[in-house]
Amino acid sequence: MLAEVKNVRQIPEEGLRRWFMDNDMDLILWYDSDENKMIGFQISYDKRSVQRTVTWKSSDEGRTGSTLTCDGPYNKKRIVRLLEQKGGELDEEILQFILLQLKVQDQ
Q1: Quick check: helix, strand or coil at residue 19?
Q2: What's the rounded Cα separation, in Å, for the pair 29 and 57?
Q3: Span 24-41, mean pLDDT?
């Protein structure tokens, strides 16, 4: 189950950062410091084998679109299944936002 890491180091230029992790997966969320709006996330999964990372960032803080980048081929169905199984301390709103962004990027 993903559990939130407390006292995560904050880098001012990146916005507010939250980090959730377990043995197989890390999820980092970035928020606009002023509006408390999610402006990015990074999912690293299969950490004990061939780790893959998927990163989503809103462009211009969400006003002009967004980009999804991967460090190689990724298995969206696996990511969705892992997030649903390991959601742990994630709010349903966060989970649904991430799933929506993964879906939108396929279109």
Answers
A1: strand
A2: 10
A3: 91
